[in-house]
Amino acid sequence: MTSEGTHLDPKDWDDFSRDLHKLMDQCIARMKSARDLPWQPKPDGFADRLSLTREAIGVGTEQTFAQLADDIMPYATGNTHPRFFGWVHGAGLPVSVGAELVAATMNSNCGGRDHGAIEVERVTLDWLLGVSGLPESASAILTTGTSQATILALTAARNKQFGHDVRKTGIRALPSVAVYVRRGTHSCIGKALESMGYGTDAIHVVDTDDDMRMDIASLKRAVAKDKSVGRVPLAVIGTAGSVNTGSFDNLNEIADFCADQDIWLHVDAAFGFWTRLADHPWAQLVDGMERANSIACDFHKWMSVPYDCGACMIYDRSLHFDTFTSRPSYLEQQEEGLGGGDLWFCDYGLELSRGFRALKVWSAIKSIGTQAFSASITDNCKQTALMAELVEASDVLDLSFPVTSNICCFYIAYGNVNKIAAELQLSGDAVFSTTVIKGKACLRAALVNHRTTSEDIRQSIRAVEGVVRRHK
User: Using CA atoms, how far apart are residues 259 and 242, in angstroms rounded to an integer?
Assistant: First the structure.
């Protein structure tokens, strides 16, 4: 043991172990009590408690861990609570606490090289691709989420359309492109096109049918019009679970058209991908997804893996590799040793430094199993149908749109929607978000929480009705 240099490890490992065990117990206690811990607003002066002034730092682990447990952990988003229906936030998994501990202990860079974390991601992605139904030639990579995955997918679409020289020459000399989306498509499509240099003007919004699905006749007219003026169709975005209503496009119909026109089909399946695991009839909502050129999905939504973790799947491994590989001399691959290995994930995405996201996914699948996830996802769909029934039976609520899977939107008879949503959140009764359906504001519930029960649904609707009646 040497005393030379400045070291950042604990001075006393026994003290550190005691402090960490105490923190772990507090984390587990919080997860066990999730049902009793709804979202709560931050107290006044919250930021001051977290100050990193010269006097407030270097205090050691006992004080730091105490502040983690007492000052920070109580003020989470609230999405671990079973009556959190706002937005589409996963509920988290206890097993992931252990996975994150091991991942932090290993501190692996999963951009490449020959080590165990790479193999964990490989087998995790093999499982994912098996669920997707994509061909054996497909490949995948874990990402921060669907937003990043969309950039990867559309970049691959661009390279397939214009050739890999575009990586060097850029897009300035290329014709303008069009990406076809239906109304209500997620904003990550626009952000992806902005980051690629095309801008949101490349988006061509097509109409939806009465079921809020992409209207194929409108798509065909849009593509024909763009081709007539020299605009190149780059991709069609099929939606598996829309943000507002949870509706699913007819992916087989879109895939037929894209195959006929030789247009890239990307499926935005941020949360809807996982209906693939559900029982009939919900599993059939994503029929045709396996015919896509690319798919984006999130593990941190319906699969409840902790943030952040998504995935991009591309039907052609060679195209995927050629779109992103870039090896300077200091990353030259060795035949053996740590610099070896046949799979470097930096060749399939934008990140060279990548965290060990795969471990929390692998641990979830390994410990819980596909059958249990299937049952939980199916439960959420049944609970959403129950919520719709309760809304339709109410004298102060009115269903905004028929329930397809796990999203229920409804109008209120009295009061301001935003104020009522805030009142429900502040009371701890339930968290709903708000949206606009057919030009009218409504409450929106997205059910992706494995802790939710049918009684939670009944209790939440009773709470909504009570608040609405008080606003009469």
Answer: 23
